[in-house]
Write a structure and sequence with these properties.
Elements: H1 11-22, H2 29-45, H3 56-67, H4 72-91, H5 120-128, H6 138-148, H7 152-156, E1 163-164, E2 169-172, E3 175-176, E4 184-185, E5 194-197, H8 200-209, H9 229-243, H10 250-263, H11 268-275, H12 280-286, H13 288-307
Antiparallel strand pairs: 1-2, 2-5, 3-4
Helix pairs in contact: 1-2, 6-10, 11-12
């Protein structure tokens, strides 16, 4: 289908065909939606630009126009999604030279970031103020994410069968399609399939909560129920306000879980496995500030130990 394209075709039309040929069916729907959004911006910013007219100046102007309404990281993602398609156009002879070479990535100043995680006292305060009932509720959902570091979609997909009460383990092997029509989906990556050890208190609590529940059905969401991440985040926000602690999101609870483990001295490898990261590199990049803080603490301990030898 791409062989029929000529240099006179509009670039946004070429890009639409390119994502249909190379991306449709090969990437997750969430990622596909990002490519579709990039195409929508192309039709808005360069509606009349032909493929053959895509050069370094027109490409840089496209990036500048996009950056005027987006932060630098978002602009960088936009650039990466376009570059692969453009390089294919260069290979096909539709564009004479790579217009993305030496592109300058700009963007609006980042917005003030909300706190990413709570400290141990703040988390304890939050959990102590959760009105936990004798039946499954979103409050139990919040508690479980705080104690396991699971992703939102992973926690939604949990069934009673995933709890191994005798061995104090929780199996994560699927996600819930909350952005689509519901139903089980594979995990984000192979490393996301894991068994998470649970503390004895959580085991006792959930063994009571899940009595007589259908082992194959999700425990937090009904099969035909439409659930939104924002709905539970708003609920969490209310509990944060009541507890007079920083307001964080459900994903912030995942960061909190990992941060507390790192500060407690748990190895990066163990934290990566517990979170279901594809590699330790992901964990190191995400929690670099904490790792650096711990390294500084280690240096103090080393220097103190060496001084005692004299």
């Amino acid at each position: 289908m791409l062989e029929q394209i000529t240099g006179n075709e509009l670039f946004h039309s070429y890009y639409k065909r390119w994502i249909q040929v190379y991306k449709e069916g090969a990437i997750r729907p969430v990622t596909m939606a990002k490519y579709t959004m990039t195409h929508a911006w192309l039709t808005r910013l360069i509606p009349h630009l032909a493929i053959k007219d895509m050069n370094r100046i027109t490409y840089q102007q496209l990036l500048n126009d996009y950056a005027a309404e987006h932060e630098r990281q978002t602009t960088l993602d936009f650039h990466h999604q376009l570059k692969a398609a453009i390089l294919d156009a260069v290979d096909e002879g539709l564009i004479s030279r790579d217009p993305t070479r030496k592109a300058i990535i700009k963007g609006k100043s980042p917005r003030t970031k909300k706190p990413k995680y709570l400290n141990q006292f703040e988390l304890h305060t939050l959990l102590a103020n959760l009105p936990l009932s004798s039946s499954i509720s979103w409050e139990w959902f919040i508690l479980l994410i705080a104690k396991t570091g699971m992703r939102f979609s992973e926690a939604l997909a949990l069934t009673p069968k995933d709890f191994d009460f005798s061995h104090q383990l929780l199996t994560v092997n699927k996600t819930w399609d909350y952005k689509g029509n519901g139903g089980f989906l594979p995990t984000k990556n192979k490393s996301s399939v894991r068994k998470i050890p649970l503390d004895w208190q959580t085991i006792i609590q959930f063994s009571q909560l899940l009595k007589d529940k259908d082992e194959t059905l999700p425990i937090f969401v009904s099969p035909n129920e439409k659930i939104y991440n924002s709905t539970i985040n708003h609920k969490l926000e209310r509990y944060c306000r009541r507890s007079r602690i920083p307001i964080i999101s459900l994903h912030g609870l995942r960061h909190t879980h990992a941060s507390l483990l790192l500060f407690a001295g748990v190895s990066i490898a163990s934290v990566a496995r517990r979170l279901g990261h594809a590699s330790m590199t992901t964990t190191q990049k995400t929690y670099l500030h904490i790792i650096q803080e711990l390294e500084n603490k280690d240096i103090d301990i080393v220097m103190r130990s060496l001084s005692e030898l004299s």
